[in-house]
Amino acid sequence: MGFFDTLGETLASTSKVVGSKTKEVAGSTKLCLQISQEETKLKKAYEALGEAYFKNHESDMPEPYAVYAADIRECAARLDSLTKDKQILKNQKQCTSCGAWMPNEDRFCGKCGAENDILAKEAESGDGETPEDSEV
Ligand SMILES: [Zn+2]
């Protein structure tokens, strides 16, 4: 067997190895993608289950889950407070009737049409109750 025959065989077997490695990488990438998609679906399913359970048992939450429910309530309250702060920074006030946000200077709500006092913001902040008071 001559040098070129040996070289040809070596090249052929090398390209087979490279080919199978490429297939391996492609297969692995595809599997990673499928795993990631299934993990996302699983998380969303758990999330949906948790949300549905929370809504159905908010008032009668059994003991092992009560701690999660408390976390959800605290988080929702902070989110509500932060959203209010953000809207107030943008010179918005909340409609006293439907809760929609509207410019401070508007008298009538653009969503429900209710009349809102222009000084509603000052009156609201003067009632002494802030969400921070409930924090322990
Ligand atoms: Zn309104």
Task: Please provide a written account of the structure.
The structure is a single chain. Helices cover 65% and strands 4% of the residues. The protein is mainly α and 136 residues long. The protein folds into three domains: 1-59; 61-90; 91-127, SH3 type barrels (Roll), CATH 2.30.30. The protein has a two-stranded antiparallel sheet. Strand 1 and strand 2 (101-103) form a beta hairpin. It is elongated and about 100 Å long. Residues 95, 97-98, 100, 109, 111-112, 114 line the site of zinc ion (ZN).
Keywords:
136 residues; mainly alpha; SH3 type barrels; 3 domains; two-stranded antiparallel ribbon; 3 helices; binds zinc ion
What is the strand content?
under 5%
Give the strand tally: 2
* Helix-strand sequence: HHEEH
Average pLDDT figure: 84
Strand order, sheet with most strands: 1-2
- List the domain count as a whole number: 3
Overall 3D form: elongated
What is the radius of gyration? 31 Å
* Largest β-sheet summary: 2 strands, antiparallel
Which ligands, by name, code or SMILES, are bound?
Answer: zinc ion
Roughly how much helix do the residues carry, as a percent range? 55-70%
Distance between the termini: 87 Å
DSSP helix count?
A: 3
Category from helices, strands and their pairing: mainly alpha
Unreliable sequence segments: 120-124, 126-136
